[in-house]
Design brief:
Blueprint: H1 7-16, H2 37-48, H3 58-71, H4 75-84, H5 90-99, H6 104-115, H7 120-127, H8 131-144, H9 149-158, H10 164-174, H11 178-189, H12 198-206, H13 211-217, H14 235-238, H15 245-253, H16 278-281, H17 284-292, E1 304-309, E2 314-322, E3 326-330, E4 336-340, E5 344-349, H18 365-376
Bound molecules: heme C.
The site of heme C has 27 residues, from helix 16 and helix 17.
Amino acid sequence: MTPRLRPAILILLTIFACPLLPGPLLPAADDGGELSPQDKLVVETVLRLQSFQLESSAPAKAAVLRYLRARLGSKQSFDLIRRFKPVEIAPDLAAFGLEHANETEGVRAAELLFAMGQQKRLLDVAEADDSERAMTAIALIGRSGRGKTVESLLPLVTSGETSMDRRIAALTAMGRQIDGQTQILSMVKETALPDELKFAAANVLLASPNAEAVEEASKYLSLPETADSQPLPPVVELAKRRGDVATGAKVFREPGTCIECHKIHGEGKEVGPDLSEIGSKLSREAMFVAILDPSAAVSHNFETYVLLTDDGTAFTGLLISQTDAAITLRTNEGIDRTVDREAVELFEKKSQSMMPQDLQRLMTAEQLVDLVEYLMGLQKSAEGSTAT
Ligand code: HEC
C-alpha cells in the first residue's frame, strides 16, 4: 500500500544509502514498528540532501509525514519539521505540545508551530470550552511564543468575554517577556486592569528583573499584607524557599483554616476539592497561586452559585444537586441547604471562587511556605507498588 516511488527518488535512495557514506542519520535504536524500512530509507535520504524540496515529490513527502507521525518528539522529527515546515503536521504538533507542555519536547513542538505560523492551533485551544486544556495551551504559548507571545495573549487578557482564570493565566504567561511586562505596566497605569487581575500583575511586575519597572509598578500596585503586616513576597520568590512539613500541617488547621473547606486523608470538610494528592497535581508556584489568588483557578466542579429565596434569604455555595423540584447548595461552612424551586427568586453562577481571596492575612510568609511544603508532599501513592 506504500505509494510507488518515482524512479528518480529510487536512484537517489540508492546513492545516498550507499555504504561509503558516513553512518546512518536515524538513530540505531529507531527500529520500532509502524514504519516500513522503505520509509526510513526515504527519510534517511531526505536528511542527507541539502537542497531537497519536499514538495517536489509526493511519495517522499508522504513517507516523511508517516515518519513524523510515528516519531514525533524525536530530534530527527524536529529537524525535518524545522527544515520543511510541512503544514500537514501542525495538528499533530499541537496535540504533542499540549500533551508534553511541561517538557522540553513539548515546548520545542510549540516553538515549531510559531515558526511555521501555525500558532492559531494553540490559540484556538486557549479559547475553546475545555478549560483545563485551555490553561495548558496558555502556559505553553507563554513558554514558546518568544516575540509573538504578547500579540498572541494580549487579546485574551483584555477580553471581557474570557473567563477570569484564563485572563490571569494569559497575563502571567505574557509577563515572562519583557515586552509583556511593559504592556502590563501601561495597562496598570491607564487603570485598564480589572481588580481580579491585579494580584497577578503585581506578581509579574514586582518580581521583574528590570529594577525600573519594579519601581514604576510599585507606585500603582502592591502585594497584600500577611499576618505580621509585612507585604507578601512575590510568588516566584516564595517558590524558591523551603519550609517545614510538620509546621505546615499545623498551619493547614490553624491559623490557615484550610481544613474548614478541604479534606486531607479523610479529615476536614468538603467545601473545596480533596487535597490528599494535590502535590502530584500542582507545581510549587501553582500551589502558591491556588492559595493566594483563588480566582486564578476556579475548578469546574466547584463553581459558586448565588440563590435568593422569595422571603429574601440569600445563600452562596457550591451546586450539589438540581432537580425540577429543588436546588441544593453547599455553603462555605460545609452545610447543605435545599430550597424548593417554587421559592427560588434568583439563581445564578458567580464568577468568583468560594475560596477566600485574602488567606495570606491569616499567616506569615514563613507559615505560608511551611504550608506549601506540606501540601507539595501530599503525593499520589505510586500505583502498583507492593507494600513490604
Ligand atoms: C471557604 C472555603 C475554603 C477555604 C477556607 C479554603 N479553600 Fe481552598 N478551595 C476552595 C474551593 C471551593 C476551591 C475550588 C476552586 C475554586 O472554586 O476556587 C478551592 C481550591 C483550592 C486549591 C486548588 C485545588 C485544585 O485541585 O486545583 C488549593 C490548592 C486550595 N484550595 C488550598 C487551600 C488552602 C491551603 C487553604 C488554607 C490556607 C484553603 N484552600 C482554604 C474553598 C476553600
